[in-house]
Amino acid sequence: MPLCYFAYGSNMLTKRLQKRCPGAVSKERAYADDWIVKFSKPSKDCSGKATLSPKNGCQTPGMLFEIPDSEVCRLDKYEGVGYGYERCNTFCVRLAESGKMVPVATYLATFTKPDLKPYDWYLALVIAGAREHIPDEDHLVMLRHVTYMRDPRCDREERSKAKKVLAEAGYTDYRCLLNRDLCESATWAV
């Protein structure tokens, strides 16, 4: 049985998720009510990755994807289950179209550090995914106000993979995603 997965971070970018799980299919937008996205999940590369934290009155938009059963273990591995993230299979989201509350799977950090920052390329992946699926301008503005840091290792494999998938999604210079003015003046081949 396929997994109904709520993506709210870098996996919102369909091309990124499909590199990890080729059979992933985007389904519909949804909201995590009373949750806020933060970049406080410690990563082995010393940066902050996206997670959800409870916060009354907030809502975090995301995208529901159907993941084939045969690819769920791959997604668990990429998400680091047992190494900082756990898959929650009973996470409730509100469907954007109907308003119906449904249980889905998502990944939540098992430990957070509030002082962490994401790398620029990672935040660009999140923003690209939000631009692809989320028509909520407030969410994009919030993401563009996240304090990020430049990756000190230009040769980092994950950075290279991120730049490649962003280019495939039409973003030849990922840094433009971090700057609203540059992003809106650019012509994208999306």
What does this structure look like?
The structure is a single chain. With 190 residues, the chain is of the alpha+beta class. It has one domain (3-185): Roll (Hypothetical upf0131 protein ytfp), CATH 3.10.490. The chain has six helices and five strands; from the N terminus they run E-H-E-E-H-E-E-H-H-H-H. It has a five-stranded antiparallel beta sheet, sandwiched between helices. Helix 3 (120-133) packs antiparallel against helix 4 and helix 3 (120-133) packs parallel to helix 5 (157-168). The longest helix has 14 residues, at 120-133. It is globular, with a radius of gyration of 15 Å.
Level-2 CATH architecture? Roll
CATH topology: Hypothetical upf0131 protein ytfp
- Global mean pLDDT: 94
Give the overall silhouette: globular
